[in-house]
Every structure is written in structure tokens, then in C-alpha cells.
Amino acid sequence: MKHLFMVAVAAASLILPASAEEPAPIPSPGEIAAAAPASDWVAIAPSDLLVMDLAPDARGKPRRVVIQLMPAPFSQGWIGNIRKLAAAHWWDGTSVNRVQDNYVAQWGDATEKKPLPKGLATVPEGDYVTQTRGTGGQKRSVTSDGRPLVMNWSGWSPGWSWADQVDAYSTKRSFFRGWSFASTDGKTGWPVHCYGMVGVGRNMSPDTGSGAELYTVIGHAPRHLDRNIAVVGRVINGIEHLSSLPRGTGALGFYEDAGERVAITSIRVATELPTADQPRFEYLSTESDSFARYVDARQNRRDPFFITPAGGADICNIPVPVRPVAVK
Amino acid sequence: MKHLFMVAVAAASLILPASAEEPAPIPSPGEIAAAAPASDWVAIAPSDLLVMDLAPDARGKPRRVVIQLMPAPFSQGWIGNIRKLAAAHWWDGTSVNRVQDNYVAQWGDATEKKPLPKGLATVPEGDYVTQTRGTGGQKRSVTSDGRPLVMNWSGWSPGWSWADQVDAYSTKRSFFRGWSFASTDGKTGWPVHCYGMVGVGRNMSPDTGSGAELYTVIGHAPRHLDRNIAVVGRVINGIEHLSSLPRGTGALGFYEDAGERVAITSIRVATELPTADQPRFEYLSTESDSFARYVDARQNRRDPFFITPAGGADICNIPVPVRPVAVK
Fold first, then answer.
1. How far apart are CA B296 and CA B315, in angstroms?
2. CA distance A65 to A78
3. Which residues 251-280 of B are in CB contact (within 8 Å) with A?
4. Please, which of A33, A211, A307, B311 could form a disulfide with A82 given CB 3.0 to 4.6 Å?
């Protein structure tokens, strides 16, 4: 009976095959995603993937973390900096310096003396939020990957719509191009600090960080950081190489002993890697009917384990399904 | 400047001393808790502590996890079973068998063949929720630790009050005796699946689990489990010994190789340990003014790092401060 212990957990995995012995009469969220037609899955451009290779673990096993960068127009100032830092191989030889339980794992230059590449932008605090609906005229455009985008003079509106959902941090939510956003006014929105999201460490305001110091969330969503720190991406593979690291025993979870730091061998945009070494992932289109069914199932769990469906789901409990592209 | 990188994080620690160089003009939540008078801190009875000793780590360091059991009248059927299992030394020689990233670490008997002690209760599903306000007469009583408790014929009401807070899972929240609870009707309430909470693994309904199979949350709060699984306690110390374990590579994060399991040396109620070895902790009284200020500060971060206070906080982002009792 071991497999049934906590079978609820099954659906927490994004993609989990139904048990052969115990087919669920009502599909779980993971089963809905797994059953979605291929046309509902969208390839993630390798140019939007940041590949972080940590030094091998104690047993010599490789440790690769794959980060997907956010799409335009969100956080693009910082993401531009990150692309420059990766192109300059700036992170090579830096390290993971801080792991604070139920909070973040953070990496960058522990010495804080390594010179930054020239030409990094200073991004204003206003860019923590983004206009998502214009009030003026519109023009049609296409995104870099060929998807239609309706541009507004004061922003952009790619068929954007907000759904009411009240939590302690916002009153509306929206899914767009594989990401989730929060809003209060229905005009501007911001990316949310959920598990696995990647943000930009900074000093005191008005500094907003260059992007050289990054962290990922490894605990309960610290949504109070929304609109206070830039969110630039999310870990889509290998987060266990960060979330299972020993916790730092210094203040804020910094490693006290330099020997505890985990060396970063390299960070590259995937297009800089040999083609065969480029990771390939796809996400379930947030504009698809499959995704709508997935959201509904996460909000109202009817698979057999559950007795009382919640009738809703926290925005951070609706992770957009992402999976590796099968090798052909 | 390293200490300022992500200084926001400081306040996420329950108790974090203010930086000597950079005193915060407006106190952070952690500073408010640290400054609370001794009279606002409540000792946790050793009889309510479950002490789990794991086998030492690879470097020979001890790994102790301390769990606080929930107060009556919540989940008492399962907690009674847990006390019997601990008294029987039933967990000694069992193991942590499953660690699923952003979800749970789970322990118990991997063989599922170890006989359970006699006399364990079969707890009904109705006990996932608890009456928190009666409709009939009242009588005054005291709890086992001498605190006043108003008993109602149909339940109990220890000065209980609910505050409106809407999230995807509930519309009201309450703090009581060091714990947080959620409700929709303001009459019945239930404990919430936040980071570090301990729950009871079970098979399919109507089974509710004996308490022999336990897990703790090591990721974003899986609140959809509320009212579907019993919550019996929370890890108040040493959660890093569970949350930083290697993730299992089998389905649901189970370890595929028995050699990966982490041995449990013993689990005891603290009163069974030699006095000198009994852990001592206290929590910030949820009925104190200090706690009210702490909640307000978590909802409206005004310490210098923050630009935009959220105006609210998720119930799982308001952990009740717990600290070791200083040795005198």
C-alpha cells in the first residue's frame, strides 16, 4: 500500500503518470497536463534559457540548473544585464554563497570585488511593475517567436485579461505566455515571487540591483517582495541542486566558511552551448483549453484522494507545467 | 556591502538581531519579536514536544528535529496515537523514506510491515475540522498548562475570534495559543498546511491515517490538503535536517534505493528524555500586544529595505515566533 500513502502528492508533481493499478476516474491536474495535445505545448526558445552548471557534487555527479528568463516586456532592463553578464562569462568561478531555509538560495561574487562588464543598465524602480493594458490606440505586432502581440501606445495588450482573485497581496491574477502575474488595478501587473522564481539581489533603494547577484525562492512564496525586487525568471529544471544544499549558518543563511560555498563552473545563455548540449523545454500554453482545465482541477481537486475541494488555489499553487522536450 | 544584499531577508528570520552598523529606524517583524517583554513569551511544555533524532550526518554531526504537537482540542485523536507510538519506541529504526522537492519530507516504516502498538484510535474524517465556537451554555475551565479556557456544551471558545482574511482557501483566520487557523463559517476552524507543519499520511478515504506515517511541508504551503489530511504539529527546530535532504528520484519523491533512506535513531516525547537533554522552547503569545504589532509589521513592511508594503500577509507568511529558552 506504500504507493497510496499520501497519493495526494501525486498531483503536486507537474507531470505524473497515473498509477497503472489505480486509474483515477477523474483526472488530476498532472494528468490533464500530460494528456494535452502536442499543439498545446510551446517550445521555449534556447535564447531564453540560462544554463547554470555547478561544480559536481561529492559523488562526482553533475549539477545543472536551467532558468527560463521572463518574456518581454517584463523586467527587460535586468534581463539585458543578465545576458551581458552571461556573454562575458562573468559568473564563471563565482559561487552559491547563501542558502536560507524556507527563503532563498543566492549566488554571485562572494568577494564583491569582481569588476562588472561595461554597459550594464541602471534600471529604475518603476520597472518592478509593467503596464499591461493601454488606454490609447493599438497596433498589431508579433513577438520574437512569431506570436501575435497587440501593442498599445502606452504599453501592450496581448489579449490580456485579469481574473479576480483576492489574496493578501493582490486582487487580480493573470496567466500569459506561460507566466503568472498579479495586479490590483487591472492595468499594471507584476511577476510573483513563487517557489523557484529567480530575482535580483540589491542594496537599499533606489538601487535595484544589476542582475549580477541572483537568488531563487526555495520556500513559501515571499510575496511581500513583489514590487520590491525585480523578478527575472524561474528555475525550470534542477532546482533540487539549490534547494537541497546545506543551509548557511551565518546571518541570513550566508555560508560562514568559504569552503562551504558551492562553485559555479559556468552560466551561459543556452544558445552559446553546443547544439547537442542545449536543454530543450516546453510549457503548456496558458492560452490553451488544456491549461484552463488544469487550473480548474488545481482549484477543485476531485481526484480520488480528496474529500473537500478547496474551491480555489493560490497563484503560487498553480505552477505552469513545463517539461523537457522528448528526444526524437 | 555584502550584508546589505537582500537585507529584506533579515525580517524573514523569526529572530534576527538588527545590524549594529545599520539600525533600522522602523523595526522589522523580527526586531519586534526580539524586543517583546519576557512576559509575552510562553513556555512550551516538554510534554508537547516530540524529539526526533536522525542518524548523524556524513560528517558525524547529530541531527535533531523538534516537533511541537498541536494543542487541544485540535487533532487530538491522532496526537493520542502519536504519543502511544513514541512511548512504544515504535519509530526507532524506521527512516525518512521520501523527500519531494517543494512538497514534503515523510518518515515512517518503509517496509509497512512493522506491527503497530495496540490501542490506536481510528479517527473520523470529521476531526479534520474543529468546532471553535459553541452555541449553547458556557463553563470556564483551564487547560493542562493552567491557561483559562471557556468550554461550551457544543465545543469550546477560549476568547476565540476570527478576523476576515480572504485567500483562495478560506475567508477568515485566527491566531490562538501560538497557532494559526483558517475558517469559512467562523464557527469551525482547521489548522493550515504551512511550511514546517507536520501531517498524517493516509490511504484513500475514509482512512485518515494512524499517525505512524508523518510528513512535514518543505515547500510552498499545499493548502489544498487542508481539511483533507490531519495536521498534528510543526517543526520548531532542525527542519533543515529534513528540508536539505537529497530529493528522492522515485515517484512522489520516494527514495528508490533503500540505502538512500535516512535512519531514525529515536522519536520520543521530550518528557521521556533525561531532563538535561529535554529541549526548551517558548513562543510569542498570540494573545499579546507584541504579537499584534508583529503581525502588523509583517503585513506592512516599513523597515528600510521595502518600497511598497503589501498591505497584507498570507497566513503562512506570519509564522508564530518560536525561540529556544536561554540557558540560565
1. 12
2. 20
3. 251-254
4. A211
What cell numbers appear for B303 in the block? 523597515
- Please state the ipTM of this predicted complex: 0.88
Residue B273 is predicted with a pLDDT of 98
Phi-psi category of A211—alpha, beta or left, where left has phi over 0 and alpha has psi -120 to 50?
Answer: left
**From CA B124, how far away is CA B130, in angstroms rounded?**
12
What is the end-to-end Cα distance of chain A in Å, rounded? Answer: 36
Quote the minimal CA–CA distance from A22 to chain B in Å. 11
Secondary-structure breakdown of chain A: helix, strand, coil percentages, each rounded to the nearest 5: 20, 25, 50
A314 touches chain B (CB under 8 A): yes
Task: Name which of B211, B214, B254, B241 is nearest B99 in CA terms.
Answer: B254
CB B242 within 8 A of CB B218: yes
Dihedral sign, Cα of residue B21, residue B26, residue B27, residue B29: negative
B328 in Cβ contact with B21 (< 8 Å): no
Say if CB A96 and CB A238 are below 8 A apart. no
Using one digit for the tens of pLDDT, what is the confidence trace for B91-137? 999 999 999 999 999 999 999 999 999 999 999 999 999 887 644 44
Determine the Cα–Cα distance for residues A22 and A222; give it in Å rounded to an integer.
Answer: 37
- CA closest to B212 among chain A residues: A5
**How far, in Å, CA of A104 to CA of B13, rounded?**
12
CA pseudo-torsion sign A24, A27, A30, A32: positive
User: In chain B, what percentage of residues exceed pLDDT 90?
Assistant: 67
C-alpha–C-alpha distance, residues B19 and B27, integer Å: 12
Contact B44, B51 (CB under 8 A): no
Select, from the ranges A20-34, A72-86, A170-184, the one with the highest average predicted confidence (pLDDT). Answer: A72-86
pLDDT for position B159: 54
d(CA A322, CA A44): 9
Q: In what order do the strands lie in the sheet with B155-156?
A: B138-142, B148-152, B155-156
Q: Does A165 touch chain B (CB under 8 A)?
A: yes
pLDDT at B265: 98
Note whether B240 contacts A: Cβ–Cβ < 8 A: yes
Rg of chain B on CA atoms, in Å: 20
Handedness of CA B230, B234, B238, B239 (dihedral sign): positive
Residue B15 has pLDDT above 70, yes or no: no
